[in-house]
Specification:
Layout lengths: L17 E5 L3 H8 L1 E7 L4 E7 L5 E7 L6 E4 L2 E5 L3 E7 L12 E10 L5 E6 L5 E5 L4 E4 L7 E4 L17 E4 L5 E6 L17 E5 L4 E7 L2 E7 L2 E6 L4 E6 L4 E7 L3 E8 L2 E7 L11 H9 L6 E6 L5 E9 L7 E5 L4 E3 L6 H4 L14
Parallel strand pairs: 8-26
Antiparallel strand pairs: 1-24, 2-3, 2-25, 3-4, 5-6, 6-7, 7-8, 9-10, 10-11, 11-12, 13-14, 14-15, 15-16, 17-18, 18-19, 19-20, 21-22, 22-23, 23-24
């Protein structure tokens, strides 16, 4: 049984309920992997931290941020995109420390105002700075000291940096060296929201160093990630998880998941995949996914599915029911049992203070 989620404010009376349910051995898997999970849902503006309580039961902790989406983690740093800001969280606990029973405490240390640019995937570069997919402006960008963001790449077919979401550039992955390298787009169109006409089969993966398409004929691809010498991605419009065979420039599916797929992370020999139920609007209609769900006689689900990379088997699940039907991104935190974060809707963030190492000499000279 999951612990009751922590909230930053009095819970609203409606809509009513959120129910978590992990598969029978999901908590065992978290224990064996010594991993915790974090995911975002822009639908109700929440970031969730999934771990284990001291008695082995599921720990679910949440904080509120407006339209939170992209998420990535490296060392002690967690980056997250929100409606008009990028947030940098830092874990302030040393190894062996705990805060109220939690072994990771993420504090929002800095926020950068980007404007409502629809920022999706984030990569932490080798210099520690975030690079991210700015979907509204069809480009890859980084933070700027005196601007909303600085574009660093756009597809050749996009003729200008304009707020028109022409190709729905949503995914960004680093290469094996940690440098931003691959993006996913829904279609190579150069007119406002032109991608919506090509959701079935118009998707591509582009190498931003060579500007070459390395995989095409995809359906609403999301969440490219380079892991164990392969470029993995979610072919969301078909419900398939797989990898890019770069020798053949083709997508190789290894598993079908019953939902619209967004959010991908890894732990050991496992992939953690985010699933969403399809909205009723046109964007999610008439996809191959609909036919596959009917064929398999299943309804779309919302939650996380754990896939064995060696077999393609869905070994564990974590489902959400109730007021959440969509999630966007997921990341895993290694060597962590029970993480949490401070938010802005309680006094806790005002009371928690951690001092840096004192500067005793030199800084005034």
């Amino acid at each position: 049984m999951a612990e009751k989620p922590r909230t930053d404010q009095t819970a609203p009376r409606e809509p009513t309920q959120l129910v978590f349910s992990g598969s029978r051995l999901f908590t065992n898997w978290l224990t064996e992997e010594k991993v915790s999970l974090v995911f975002t849902t822009y639908q109700i503006g929440k970031i969730f931290f999934i771990g284990l309580q001291p008695d082995g039961r599921l720990s679910v902790f949440e904080r509120s941020f407006d339209r939170c989406m992209g998420l990535t983690q490296k060392n002690n740093t967690l980056w997250m995109s929100a409606r008009y800001q990028m947030w940098r969280f830092e874990n302030v606990l040393l190894e062996g420390q705990n805060y109220r029973g939690y072994d990771k405490l993420y504090v929002p240390m800095a926020g950068h105002t980007t404007g409502d640019a629809d920022i999706h995937d984030i990569v932490i570069g080798t210099d520690g700075k975030p690079v991210f997919a700015v979907t509204l402006f069809n480009c890859v960008a980084t933070l700027s000291d005196d601007s909303s963001f600085t574009p660093i790449w756009k597809p050749d077919f996009i003729d200008d940096y304009v707020a028109e979401d022409r190709c729905h550039l949503n995914g960004l992955a680093a290469d094996e060296g940690g440098n931003p390298r691959y993006v996913t787009i829904v279609s190579d169109t150069n007119v406002v929201e032109g991608w919506r006409e090509h959701r079935n089969g118009g998707g591509m993966v582009i190498d931003i160093v060579t500007n070459k398409v390395i995989c095409a004929d995809l359906s609403m691809p999301h969440s490219p990630r380079f892991y164990k010498n392969k470029l993995w991605l979610l072919n969301a419009g078909t419900g398939e998880f797989g990898y890019v065979d770069q020798s053949e420039n083709s997508f190789v599916p290894i598993a079908f998941c019953p939902g619209f797929l967004r959010g991908l992370s890894f732990s050991g020999d496992y992939a953690i995949i985010g699933l969403s139920k399809q909205r009723s609007d046109r964007t999610f209609q008439d996809l191959v996914l609909d036919e596959r769900l009917k064929k398999e006689k299943v309804e779309p689900r919302c939650g996380l599915q754990i896939i064995n990379l060696n077999t393609g088997d869905a070994t564990h699940t974590f489902w959400l029911e109730g007021i959440i039907s969509e999630i966007y991104d997921v990341t895993s935190i290694a060597d962590t049992v029970r993480p949490m974060a401070l938010g802005f809707r309680s006094e806790e963030i005002a009371r928690y203070i951690k001092l840096g190492e004192p500067k005793t000499t030199g800084w005034l000279s």
